[in-house]
Amino acid sequence: MSPKRYGIISDLHSNVEGLRSCLAALDEEGVDEVLCLGDIVGYNAKPAECLDLAVERCSHIIQGNHDRYLLGEIPERLKESIVHVAKWGGEQLSDEQRRKLKDLPETKVVDDRVLMVHGSPRNRDEYLLTHDAIEGGLKAMKGKYMGLYVCFFGHTHLPFLICDEEVRADFKEKTTIKLEKGTPYLLNAGSTGQPRDGFPLAGCGVFDTGEYTMTWLRVEYDIAKTQGEVMAAGLDDWFAYRLEAGK
Q1: Which residues 6+ apart lie within 8 Å of 170 measured at CB?
Q2: What residue ranges define each of the domains in the chain, with the CATH number in brackets?
């Protein structure tokens, strides 16, 4: 199989300015195709625009928990502000857009090379933040997904490199790491639409199968414009404020 450069985006959360900037950065990196790890909608004010652009530009897209919220799959004890933005977001989408969102798979294997999940390899809504979750995710890679060594995940809104030997999350500037072939990795490129590592720049990444490297990118975008759109839509002000704080 020929080498390929995959662009990775995740947790767009209706932030079309962040999405456009990340796609432009990935174009500059010369990626062959873009993979989207879900949560296209939620929090911010441009769900329809984000969905349309993701469908246009991404070769493979999976569904995240906020995508299911918009479609009506709302769990108990979900914060009222999130319930509100999910219902509001549903009103912004056409029937055809809702169908596209509903038809997205929850996981996907691409080119027999990489696994796409939103939460973790063992649970669609699991956050890979605790020792148990990380250990379980790596165990699932070695068992259920034996033969695959690279899993891209989202959900945490934090850039991560996870393997048996180390866990890294210090990716606040462009960073390229050479991966070890035959070692299972859980990789998070960060959030395109709502970073939470205390750094406001949008996150995305590039996986190069030829060089066998992962590159984390942090990309500037028009935060003030996105904040203004959130407030104009009457959504929770906190969704706007947190963008500049990166949390």
Answers
A1: none
A2: 5-245 (3.60.21.10)
Question: Of 162, 108, 155, 112, which is closest to residue 139 (Cα–Cα)?
Answer: 162
Residue 69 near residue 100 (C-beta atoms within 8 A): no
What whole-number distance in Å separates Cα of residue 1 and Cα of residue 228? 46
pLDDT (tens digit, 9 = 90+) per residue, 186-211? 999 999 999 999 999 999 999 999 99
* H/E element, 54: helix 47-57
DSSP 115: E
Of the candidates 61, 88, 95, the residue with the CA atom closest to the CA atom of residue 232: 88
CA 243 – CA 247 distance, rounded (Å): 7
Estimate to the nearest angstrom the gap between the alpha carbon of 120 and the chain centroid: 12
Nearest 5 degrees, angle CA 130-CA 134-CA 138? 170
Q: Tell me which residue of 218, 224, 222 sits closest to 205, measured CA to CA.
A: 218
CA neighbor of 6 nearest in space, from 42, 50, 37: 37
Distance between CA atoms of 205 and 188, rounded to whole angstroms? 8
Contact criterion met (CB below 8 Å) for 154 and 191: yes
pLDDT digits (tens, 9 = 90+) for 55-66: 999 999 999 999
Q: Is the pTM of this model over 0.85?
A: yes
Contacts of 93 (CB under 8 A, 6+ apart): 41, 47, 48, 51, 70, 101
